Amino acid sequence: MRPIILGTMAAFFFAFTFIINRSMELEGGSWIWSASLRYFFMVPFLLLIVYWRKNLKPLIVEMKNNPRAWLLWSIVGFGLFYGPICFSAAYAPGWLIASTWQITIISGSLLAPFFLETVMTQKGPVKIRGRIPMKSLALSSIILLGIILMQVERAADSLSLMEVLLGVLPIIVASFAYPLGNRKMMDVCGGRLDVFQRVLGMTLASMPLWIVLAIYGLFTVGPPSVGQSIQSGIVAITSGVIATVLFFQATDLVRGNMQKLGNVEATQSISVLFVVIGELILLKAALPTLISWTGILLVMAGMVLHSYVSHKGDILTGKKVSA
């Protein structure tokens, strides 16, 4: 249960991304600064945390030992994740981005064959090629159906083809990039680093991308406004630091088990509910319709089932379940 709870808490703080990014776009801010500023602001906070925990030197050694892997998978996991999300905010409302992002529930499960998982045998633990967790995929489909119901009416009434292409396709790219980068970095680290070290390391390794993007922004759209800088700082703390650390901690707890990893990644669907509430309060969005509320209930039901299956699996295998 603990990974599910941590994942749900991460979803709450991730919701700030979609709400604030949409707010910045409505105020005329560029997606370029929404993306790059978040990671610039994350660095000092994470540096302080890792330095205070006396874990900075082991991280530096680890990054020096495998710089190419750190650079590649950090850019995939952070760059190809957050860049497209911010880009989509310029063409689609927050509710569409948040709901489309939930395709990561399916994306994470489909990536299973690209990784090895640990299985206990009579001869001890053995690593085998992962299989697509069909039970997790079925439960994820319930959540996905709920998300579709939540947005189907609004999509039919208010979206143009351009909004669909520029607002949806980048999110699909991000939905594969985020779990792929996260899982690959878990393999690279091999349990030698804690979650704070890994997030800081990935942030630092992705800096070349954000620096190039910021330079491009200076020459094309000019410097960011004070308001966008402040809002980007809020996103950096809530989503970049708190949510990412919580989510990575949750995935670390189930590392090597594709079924449970899929369950944890599915918790991110709950962020749709938080975005709906946030938009109602902060952006004065319209109340969901009856069909949308039906979708919300399906999302919640799917989340409960994911949690139940994970909890039941721990009991049947004799593992201790953390409350």
TrEMBL record:
Matching InterPro entries: EmrE
Transmembrane segments: 5-24, 30-50, 70-90, 96-116, 136-152, 158-178, 199-218, 230-248, 269-287, 293-310
Residue runs in coiled coils: none
Swiss-Prot/TrEMBL keywords: Membrane, Transmembrane, Transmembrane helix
Pfam families in the record: EmrE (PF13536)
Protein name: Multidrug resistance efflux transporter family protein
Provenance organism: Neobacillus driksii
